[in-house]
């Protein structure tokens, strides 16, 4: 069963819930603009070979695709009852995966964060291993979905992991 949320693809079953958030349209327009700038710089460097600025244009044109390859295209949170929570971020170069075992899972929380001059909401998974400090893993830290999108993800992942609504101490 797949439900459509505002920005997230949601797949929920009794023991598994998966949430996927893709890059925003503005990021895709930015990617297109950077590609056009890269093409213009390569054209300038090829047509003006004798000028010293052409070497600089080529360096910048090579740096833009490297930067684009590191941009996050899709992020996901998969909650598996009794097993744990998997957070992943997919770029053009590959996928980074973080797994928090169910025995080490302390809480899944919504946090109000400050970024620059704006206040944003983030979803975090708190991992508490024995005899170690707690670690906070932020889900969807690149796509930064709105609170209206994060709230059903938070509720669904907590219900899948069978966590109560009581406050957790870290």
Percentage of residues in helical conformation: 25-40%
Please indicate the percent range of residues in DSSP E strands (runs of 2 or more).
35-45%
SSE order, as H and E? EEEHHEEEEEEH
Enumerate how many helices there are, as a single number. 3
End-to-end distance? 34 Å
Would you count the extended β strands for me? Answer: 9
Q: Structural class, from secondary structure content?
A: alpha+beta
Radius of gyration: 21 Å
The major beta sheet can be summarized as: 6 strands, antiparallel
Tally of domains: 2
What is the 3D form?
elongated
Give start-end ranges of low-pLDDT stretches.
Answer: 1-6
**Overall residue-averaged pLDDT value:** 79
CATH topology of the largest domain: PH-domain like
The CATH architecture of the largest domain can be named as Roll
Please give the order of strands in the largest beta sheet: 1-2-3-4-5-6
What CATH first level of the largest domain would be assigned? Mainly Beta
Description:
- 32% of the residues lie in helices and 38% in strands.
- It is built from three helices and nine strands, in the order βββααββββββα.
- The chain has a six-stranded antiparallel beta sheet, covered by helices on one side. Strands 7-8-9 form a three-stranded antiparallel beta sheet, covered by helices on one side.
- α1 packs antiparallel against α2.
- It is elongated.
- The protein starts with a strand and ends in a 10-residue tail after the last helix.
- The N terminus is likely disordered.
């Amino acid at each position: 069963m797949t439900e459509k949320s505002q920005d997230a693809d949601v797949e929920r079953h009794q023991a598994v819930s998966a949430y996927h958030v893709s890059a925003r349209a503005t990021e895709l327009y930015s990617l297109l603009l950077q590609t056009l700038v890269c093409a213009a710089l390569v054209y300038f460097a090829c047509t003006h070979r004798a000028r010293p600025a052409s070497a600089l244009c080529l360096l910048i044109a090579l740096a833009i695709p490297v930067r684009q390859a590191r941009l996050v295209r899709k992020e996901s949170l998969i909650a598996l009852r009794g097993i744990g929570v998997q957070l992943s971020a997919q770029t053009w170069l590959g996928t980074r995966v973080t797994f928090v075992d169910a025995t080490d899972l302390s809480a899944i929380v919504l946090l109000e964060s400050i970024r620059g001059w704006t206040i944003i909401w983030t979803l975090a998974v708190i991992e508490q291993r024995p005899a170690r400090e707690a670690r906070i893993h932020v889900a969807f830290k690149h796509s930064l979905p709105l609170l209206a999108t994060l709230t059903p993800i938070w509720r669904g992942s907590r219900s899948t992991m069978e966590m109560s609504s009581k406050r957790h101490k870290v």
